[in-house]
Design a protein that fits this description.
By secondary structure, the chain is an alpha/beta fold. It is built from 13 helices and 13 strands. The strands form 3 sheets. Strands 2-8-7-6-5-3-4 form a 7-stranded mixed beta sheet, sandwiched between helices. The protein has a 4-stranded antiparallel beta sheet with strand order 9-10-13-12. Helix 2 packs antiparallel against helix 10, helix 4 runs parallel beside helix 5 and helix 11 packs parallel to helix 13. The protein is globular. The N and C termini lie far apart (53 Å). The protein binds pyridoxal-5'-phosphate. The site of pyridoxal-5'-phosphate (PLP) has 13 residues, from helix 4.
Length: 366
């Protein structure tokens, strides 16, 4: 069959092992999943209550304009409703952007390592991929700018960056955007925006107002704790949104997802509490890294990349057998490291103890 040549070597997404599966294999009663940067505190009760009380028909298609959530977000963000686009998770927005802009003969610029879906979708579309290595966990914006040419269609910025947790500050971003040609779309992926507390972080709403070639992506999957519903959104200039809309599937946001997101948006107290707990959790990891003399990047997300200078897969396996699922750095382009989602205080303490015993056992064996 006549497959696109570029997809013949692509691998399908490898889902992590299910909690049930790991429990069974290792005879464990409790598993703590700290692998996908999900919210350890779940989601707002308002979202749960809304979903439980939903009694309308399942037979009707959802609202293809996502009107209720659109209006609420437009009010919340103070942007026009025409400046918003919704995706089945921000994953789908990455797909929509790629589908709308990338093709053979064009190129796209991104950091490495970063969120792998930028590369994946660019590969499917047959575009040239220009990956610029991070410097100290941070985007090398000068080198990224230097990689842009007349064929560049999209630049991907991930802030805070997955997997390092390092953010781009306001001055760095503005300096970069002042130079980027205005016919290049700059995607600012802010999946972890709500966790950020750094004072020199930019204001993406002001940025989007000032630079019509910027599209900001956010999601209800992380701090809002609604990953299973798949609701992401983008905001930018009306011109960019208008061009992307025809590429979007008509009913990509389902009714339950829209309602749950709407209810969750109305509970900003929950978001604030999760942000505060996350900061405390990060401190637990920082203390551990400092006492064990392990390198790490200070993180503005809900995860931390820790360099154990070991075989990451071995540590991953060790932690899994103790009931903690993390992400091996080998899968993230960071060999020697693991990425751990910040959990509840108790979960953090547990995984830190397991990491300590790994370090101690390794020292005995050496
Ligand atoms: C940086 C980044 N962008 C986008 C996503 C996709 O999130 P979702 O599709 O659940 O909105 C993730 C998920 O891990 C992410 O880390």
């Amino acid at each position: 069959m006549k497959w696109k040549q570029q997809i013949t070597n692509l691998k399908a997404y490898q889902p992590g092992r299910s909690i049930e599966d790991v429990k069974k294999e290792y005879g464990l009663e409790k598993i703590v999943k700290l692998a996908s940067n999900e919210n350890p505190f779940g989601s707002s009760n308002k979202a749960k209550e809304w979903v439980q009380s939903y009694g309308a028909s399942y037979a009707l298609y959802p609202d293809g304009y996502t009107t209720a959530l659109r209006l609420a977000l437009s009010e919340f963000l103070k942007v026009d409703e025409k400046q918003l686009i919704f995706g089945n998770g921000s994953d789908e927005l990455i797909l929509i952007i790629s589908r709308a802009m990338l093709e053979p003969g064009k190129n796209t610029v991104m950091a490495t390592p970063t969120f792998p879906q930028y590369r994946h979708n660019a590969t499917v579309e047959g575009a040239e991929i220009r990956e610029i290595p991070l410097v100290d966990g941070s985007h090398d914006l000068e080198a990224m700018y230097a990689a842009i040419d007349a064929q560049t269609a999209v630049v991907w910025l991930c802030s805070p960056n997955n997997p390092t947790g390092v953010y781009i500050n306001n001055d760095q971003l503005v300096q970069f955007l002042n130079k980027v040609p205005n016919d290049v779309l700059v995607v600012l992926d802010e999946a972890y925006f709500e966790y950020v507390t750094a004072e020199d972080y930019y204001n993406a709403l002001d940025i989007a107002k000032q630079y019509p070639n910027v599209l900001v992506l956010r999601t209800f999957s992380k701090v809002y704790g609604l990953a299973s519903f798949r609701v992401g959104y983008g905001f930018g200039s009306e011109e960019v949104i208008r061009a992307l809309e025809p590429v979007r599937e008509p009913f990509n946001i389902n009714t339950l997802g829209e309602g749950a997101a709407l209810a969750a948006l109305s509970d900003q107290e929950f978001i604030k509490k999760c942000r505060e707990e996350n900061k405390k959790g990060l401190q637990q990891f920082y203390q551990f890294c400092e006492s064990e003399k392990l390198d790490y990047y200070p993180s503005e997300g809900n995860f931390i990349l820790i360099n154990f200078n070991c075989d990451s897969d071995e540590l991953f396996q060790y932690l899994m057998e103790k009931g903690y699922i993390v992400r091996s750095g080998n899968a993230l382009g960071c060999p020697g490291s693991v990425r751990v989602t910040v959990g509840s205080q108790e979960q953090n303490e547990g995984v830190i103890q397991a990491m300590k015993s790994f370090i101690a056992e390794k020292a005995i064996r050496q």
